[in-house]
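Why Eukaryotic translation initiation factor 3 subunit C? Reviewers of the renewal asked for a concrete example.
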Amino acid sequence: MSRFFHGGGSDSETSSSDEEELYSDREEEEEQSEEEESSDEYSEEEDSEEESSEDEDRPKKTGANIFLKDEGEDTDESEDEDRVTVVKSAKDKRLEELESTVKLIENAEKIGDWAVISTEFDKLNRQLLKITQSGPTPKIYIKAIADLEDFMNETIAKQKTTGKKMNASNTKGLNAVRQRIKKNNKDYQAEIDKYREDKDGYMEAVEAEEVKIEKPSRLRVTPTLDALTIADDEGFSTVGRHGKTLQYTPESILKHLRIIVESRGKKNTDRLEQIRTMEKLLEVSQTPYQQIRVYLTLIATRFDLTSSSTANHMSPEQWKLAEGEFSKLLGVLEENRNHIVFEGAEEWEDDDKLPQVAEGEVLRIPGSIVSFVERLDDELTRSLQHIDPHTAEYIERLGDEQALYTALLRTQLYVEELGKTDKSEPRQDSLNRVVIRRLEHVYFKPSQVVSILEDATWKAIPQKLESTITPRSSTSDVPALVQTLCNYLFRYSDGIIRARAMLCQIYFLALHENYYRARDLMLMSHLSENIANFDVSTQILFNRTLVQIGLCAFRAGLIYEAQNTLSDICGSGRQKELLAQGIILQRYSTVSPEQEKLERQRQLPFHMHINLELLECIYLTSSMFLEVPLMAQTSSSPEMKRRVISKTFRRMLDYNERQVFTGPPENTRDGVIMSAKFLAAGDWKKATELLNSIKIWDLMAQPDKIKAMLAEQIQEEGLRTYLFTYAPFYDTLSVSTLVNMFELSEKKVSSIVSRMISHDELAAALDQVNDAIVFTKGVELSRLQSQIVTLADKSMSLLEANEKTLEQRTQGMANAFQREQGPGARGGRGGRGGGQARGGARFPGGQQRRPGGQQFGGGALGGAIKA
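Here is what the prediction returned.
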C-alpha cells in the first residue's frame, strides 16, 4: 500500500517518468517474474510461518485499541519506505543481454569452441535487430564482430601452416561463421575501420545521447529537390522510426529491395505496404537494371498476396495490375537486349553500386519470365473455377484471356530471341513450356475463334517483333498454326509435354471433323497403353480427346466406332470425374478433405466443358442402333450365346420396361429409350419422329444434317431388326416389299441383305433373278446338343481364366524358361496355337463379328480398323 500513498514530489516524478518504461518492459518483467516466483516460493512460506507465530504470541486488541499502532509495525513500514525499487528500461536490458552474449563469444574464443561461437553469433545478430529498432548500432557490437573476424582469419591461417585439423563440430561451426561474417561485416565496414584504426579511443568515446522524439502519426513536410520523399496528394509524408521522413533515392533502391526480398515468407509482413513502396521505387528508378529488379520483385510480391490470404485465387484487380507490370517488364527487356533475365544467373550482392555493362557484353539478372506467365495463366484458371459460369461476371473475366494470350506470345518471342544467342538446354526447356501453354489455349476452340484471337494478339505486339516458329503470316491458317506448334514440340520436347502436344493435336483434328486422321494418330501414339504412367491432368486430357473422337465419329455417321470409343468413358457412369467437369459427392465416401481439395483444383473452367447431356444422348443413341438388332438376333436364335454391347443401355431399357405406367418422355434419356422401344416393335417412323424431337441436337453444328443421318440409320437398323425377328417365319421374301415397308432404295436393301448373309448373320440367299430373298432352314439342335454346346463354352472360359492366372503368376519364370529353351519352347500363352488372339463382346478378336456385319480388332479405338 505504501507504494501508492507516498508523499513528496520526487517519488511522483520518478513514477510518472518510469511509467512508459514499465509498460514497454511488461513482457520481459513477466518472464522474469515467473522465474522469481519459483525461486521465492520457499522464502514466502517461511515468512508466512514466522508471521503466524508472532501473531499468536502478540495479545489481541479489542475495542478502540484495534486502531493503535504497535512498535513492530512501525519499524516494518519505515523499512518499506526506505527501500528503493530499481526499474531498468528495455534498452538497458537488451544492452546487458548483448554484452553477456559478447562475453560468451570471447570465452569460446579462448578455448577455440567454434560450435558455441557460431550459435552465439546468430543470437548476437538477432539481439541487434531489437536494439537497432530504437537506436543506433552499439559500439560493443562493432568491437565484437571485428575481433571475431580477426580471430577467424588467424585460425584459418594457423590451420594452413600447421596442417592440424579440428573435430567435426568445430569445423562445421568455423565454416558457418566464415560464410556469414563476411556478408554481415560488409554493412558495418566503415565503423569497423574506425575501430581498427584506434581501438582504445573508439571505445572510450561517449555515444551521443539520443533525443527522444515523439512519433507523430502524420508529419507535414516540404518536398525538396535534393532528396525524394514518399508524399501523398495532400502533402503528407510517410514517417519512419525516430520521427524521420522516409526518403527514397535511386542509390537506395537496391537496399530497399533486399529488405523486401528477405522479408518474404515471414509472418506479419504487410505486403500491401511493400507493394506501395515498390511502386514509389519505380518512379525513382533511372536505369533499366533498377526497373527490371523492381518489376521482378513487385510481380512476385503480388503473387504472394494470394498465398498469404485465405483466398484460393488472385483477385481480378491484382491480376490485371500484375499483367500490366509484366507487359512493362517485357517492354524494358525488349528495349534493352543487353539485360537478360535468366534463372541460373548469379545475384548482384553489392547494393551500394550498380553493375556496369560494357559494350558487347550481356548482364544476366536472376529471375524467370516463363514462371511469371505460367502463374498468370494458373491464377486466371483458378479465378474462372470459382466464378458462377451463368453470370455476366464470368464472361467479363473470360475477356482477360486475350491479355494473357498476348503475354504468352510476347514471352515466346522473348525466349526465341534469347535462344538465337545461346542455345542452351534451359532456354529450350523454357521455350517448350511457353509453346505448350499457348497450344493449350487454342486446341479446344473452333478455327474462327482462334483466328480472331491471333489477329488481335499480333496487333497488340510491336511490329518489330517476329517469331521464327509461328510467323505473322501463319495466323490466317489456323490448322497449319496448330500443326506447326505440335511439330515443334514433337521435335524438341519429350515426356509429358510431347504427350500433351499429341493429345491437343488429336483433339483439334476431331473437333474439325477429321476423324480418320485423329484416329490414326491416337493409335500410332500408343498413349492408350502408357497413359496410366502420366500425371492426372494428362489423363484428363486423354479422356477429353477420346470423347471428342467419339463425337466426331458420330457426326460422320460412324455409329459403331462412336459407341466403341465412348463406351470406356460413358459406360463407367463417372463422366464428370473423368472429364474434370465436376465432383460426385457420395454419402459414404472415403475421400479425405485434402483429396477433395485437389480434385476441385483440377476442375476445368466452364468454357472448356464438353456437354455431358449431349454426350450421354449420343452414347445411348449409338448403343440403341447396335443393341436393338442384337436383341432381335439373340431372341430368334436361343442357341446363340447371349451378348451385351452396352450394359448401361440394357439397364435403362429394363428399368423402363418394369414400369407399370410409362408416360411421354420428359428428358433426353427417356426420349432415346422410348425411341428404342418403337424401333424394336418395328415402328421406325414413330422412332424417327421421337428421336428427332429431342432438343439436344440443336446444340450441334449442323442439326439438320444430324437428324437426316439419324433417320437413315433408323431405317437401316429397322430393316435389320425386322429380318432378325421374322426370318424363322419366312421361306421367301420379296425385296420390293422391304423397299415399300422401310422406304429405302432397292440397291440399299440389297446391300444390307448381302452384308448380313456374308457375315453369317442371316441364313438366306439373294435371288436376283426373281428379286427375292430365299431363307434356308438350319438343322435345329436337340436339347442334348444345346447343353453340350453350353458346356463347351463354359469349359473354354474356365481354361482361359486358368491360363491367364498362370501367366500372371509365372510371367517372369516363363520368360526366362523360354529364353533358355529357345524359340520353340512354350512360354505363357504362346504355346496354344501360336498365341491366338481372344476378345470379348465389346472388343472382339479372332473370328468374332460385330452386329454391324464388319470385322474389327484392337482396343478401344482399334475396333475402328478392319482386321
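Strands lie at 219-220, 236-237, 339-342, 363-366, 732-734, 764-767, 772-775. This is the kind of structural detail the renewal will allow us to pursue systematically.
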